[in-house]
């Protein structure tokens, strides 16, 4: 779906109702070339038949009507009304119901207006539903039967004329219904195509918003932790400017290391965002259960089809320099797992935090990548919030779980009392929201808030398939 509507090969051969763009909002589109041709042909046929009929009526021996018109006034009135109906064919699409109703009294006595009346009825059936067009068509059939009964043929009687009127009216009705059904089918296809295009634009926009949300969440998860460590060490140096040179050097080294890691994390996030994410990302890994082998360990390995033939590689001619070799791409660091939780806690301890880690984990090497990364981000966000909002308090990190039972992660710290001495570290206020979305994507739950004992508790549960 490219967003560009395909134009027909010969649009001038289609009626205006099929070529009009619904986005313009015009209730009555302009006539197409085909409409002008059809209107001209209809006007010429109706006018030509009316001229022949009037010539026949005024002749000594008429053949189209039973008797010769003796009243010149009746012929004049008939000619005026027939001429009006023929001219009305140019606007029959705009007022088909009114023209069909106006043609009813004329059809009681006028033979020259017969073709114009049939064209008006055909337009009525094409452009109006059967519930509207049906009664008018039936009324015209009754008027035609009444006309043949009042003016019977001297040789064959009224029955031949009545039958011919019924066949003509039924043919007009069937033809008009066929044209209307075909146009409605084409319009339904066009509306479906426009709707599919609009839905595609909405899906693209939703994917773009989702990607922006993912970018914001990843940037927050990766950089907020590092920046908070930098702020903590910088605050310690500001608080103790008379510290021994060894401590200042160690704090400066930690700041340099944290800044280097923050820049490296930022580079990795940008490199990931510049690429297309893989289908069925790592967040969905745990939802895919492995299929066991039916024959146990002795099952035959799966046979893969042979690779397609590769195109020949042109070799440089003698004397030509070798083509430049693209620089090797720096391999990305592995994503954090459950085994990286102790290193994360140790990093916070080096920054001066009082953190206690308690883990009861089994078979961490079999944990899905999405599970390990999710637990790591939860603990990372909990430690970051503790540094921001409760500096100096002790933090307890607990992680328990095993395959088949799930993983429980909890970060608990005391509720801060009073205001911090230094300026508070600014935050975006969306970290916990992002964690909630991450745990929901993993199929778990997240809760946070103040407990009855006065602690702030951040707890989550994630499914761990067996």
Please give a structural write-up.
The protein has 466 residues and is of the alpha+beta class. 53% of the residues lie in helices and 9% in strands. A 5-stranded mixed β-sheet has the order 1-2-3-5-4, with helices on one face. Helix 10 links the parallel strand 1 and strand 2. Helix 4 runs antiparallel to helix 5 and helix 7 runs antiparallel to helix 8. The longest helix has 82 residues. The N terminus is likely disordered.
Key features of this structure:
single chain, 466 residues
| Rounded average pLDDT | 76
Shape call: rod-shaped
Distance between the termini: 42 Å
Walk across the major sheet and give the strand order: 1-2-3-5-4
Number of helices: 11
- Based on DSSP secondary structure assignment, what is the total number of beta strands? 5
- What is the helix/strand order? HHHHHHHHHEHEEHEE
Low-confidence segments, given as residue ranges, are: 1-5, 276-313, 325-332
Helix/sheet category: alpha+beta
Question: In this structure, how is the largest beta sheet organized?
Answer: 5 strands, mixed
Beta-strand percentage? 5-15%
Provide the fold topology.
Layout: H1 16-19, H2 33-57, H3 72-88, H4 96-107, H5 114-127, H6 130-150, H7 158-239, H8 245-273, H9 341-350, E1 354-361, H10 369-389, E2 394-402, E3 406-414, H11 431-441, E4 445-450, E5 455-462
Parallel strand pairs: 1-2
Antiparallel strand pairs: 2-3, 3-5, 4-5
